[in-house]
Amino acid sequence: MAIRNADDRVLERQGDGQRTSSREIDDLILDAARSCVLDFGMQRTTLAEISRRAGVSRPTVYRRWPDTRAVVADLLTREIRAALPEMIDTGSARTQLVAAVVDVVSQIRDHPLFVKIRVADQELLTTYIVDRLGASQRSILELLTAVVAAGQRDGSIRDGNVGEIAAMTLLIAQSVVISAPTMEGQLSRTAAVEHMRSAISAYLTPVAGSAR
Asked: What's the pTM?
């Protein structure tokens, strides 16, 4: 579920008579949802409590999201999108991509919201690991696909189907975020990230003797 692209021209009146844009209201609600989930977990978070903490009416929340799960899904999307870096024009695409994946994995793995959900509400994450892609995963895939294509053009990333390479890169990174904690007895958090860095770098490197 994607974050609603609300029309900023749709305004709602605050208690002081000022107008607040719909997008700002969305952020107030998502901020309130973040606070609730960190305090209670998703299962005990209600739309009523979200609306109270956001300082908006319940109908304002209900017009935007049908239930708590939908709010939290959009909240996760917002938080993950905020962690995505912007690619720059210096350095090879492969170097930038590997560094970006390491940075995002480190941020998301230790993000308080993600940690809370992983511990208390694993079924929400399971939906996006087993059943279907979420909006945040699609955002990451779009970025990965663009950088892989750039890397193939500059010769720093191996030949192959761009979408498949991007998808495999996401799967490697996602496994470190989701599954690496189960291996902490054999693989420390730091070691997991460093091995991931080596694995992705090797995976993306052009094969010796290829046309490139």
From this structure: 0.75
